[in-house]
Amino acid sequence: MPSDSALRIVWIYPDLLSTYGDQGNVLVLERRAQLRGVETETIHVRSADPVPETGDLYLIGGGEDRPQILAAERLRRDGGLHRAVAGGAVLLAVCAGYQIMGSTFGGEEGQPVDGIGLLDISSSRGAARAVGELVAEVDAALNLPTLTGFENHMGVTRLGPGVKALSRTIVGTGNGNGFEGCYAGHVVGTYLHGPALARNPALADLLLSWCVGDLAPLDDSRYEALRQERLASVLPG
Ligand code: GLN
Questions:
Q1: For this structure, is 95 an active site residue?
Q2: What are the backbone angles phi and psi of residue 115, rounded to the nearest 5°?
């Protein structure tokens, strides 16, 4: 039985949005919290269910165009995620989930579809599908190592003045204009699958630290081996 002080992780709409290993982000957060002695309680919220407002850390993944449109409609109608973020909850939104957080995104025919307006971004269909490895240097203010991940999307994303770019793209497309992802307050959006947090444990720790404060370092040699292997596969030696 989790205690009242357990870190509450909310995994939004696994039945609609969870491609390319995004659920691994939940596992990484649970594990890295538990290794620091932080108990966790994870709630999987299917799309027919209300999004609880009492979570500490919310995650939403990527997916295909139609489930993405459905997810946006349901999240907007539900309102729980808005209220949670307004109350200070942390959110990691990946790919389709990232696009949904903006004012608009491209539907299956490229038509503009309303997002849920949690981030000052807007997305539309790009000229070509962006698919493959992605490497990006994170905004210095966040003090994180190079991001590594995998992307597969048609959308491109413009950032408004209410958000900052998460990183500058070295390999891959990301937002489509030399930058990858964005952040505002404790909300992070990214095109990175792979899953993002297994390949970027420092990003997992940043999200956790926003919930529980400073964290003791861990032995990350296995994560590091994965990172080096992936980075070496696309960066010139
Ligand atoms: N359907 C969106 C796009 O193609 C998101 C894809 C994804 O989440 N992988 O841009």
A1: yes
A2: -90, -165
- 8-state DSSP, 5: T
Classify the C-alpha dihedral 225-228-234-237 as positive or negative: negative
For the structural domain made of 7-234, what CATH number should be given? 3.40.50.880
Phi/psi for 34 (5° steps) reads -60, -35
Contact 179, 5 (CB under 8 A): no
Mutating to test ligand 1, I would choose from 25, 59, 64 the residue with most ligand atoms within 8 A of its C-beta, which is 64
Of the residues 95, 153, 182, 211, which is catalytic?
95
Give the pocket of ligand 1 (CB within 6 Å).
19, 62-65, 68, 95-96, 152-155
User: What is the reported pLDDT for 132?
Assistant: 97
In this predicted model, what pLDDT tens digit does every residue of 55-64 receive, in sequence order?
999 999 999 9
The arithmetic mean of pLDDT across residues 47-68, rounded, is 97
DSSP 3-state of 71: helix
Residue among 153, 182, 193, 211 flagged as catalytic: 193
Q: Per-residue pLDDT for 222 more than 90?
A: yes
Q: Which residues contact 167 (CB under 8 A, 6 or more apart)?
A: 136, 137, 138, 139, 147, 174, 179, 180, 181
Tell me, yes or no, if 186 is annotated catalytic.
Answer: no
Instruction: Determine the atom of ligand 1 nearest the C-alpha atom of 65.
Output: 1
9: Cα separation from own chain's centroid:
13
**pTM greater than 0.90:** yes
HSE, side-chain direction, 13 A CA sphere, residue 189: 29
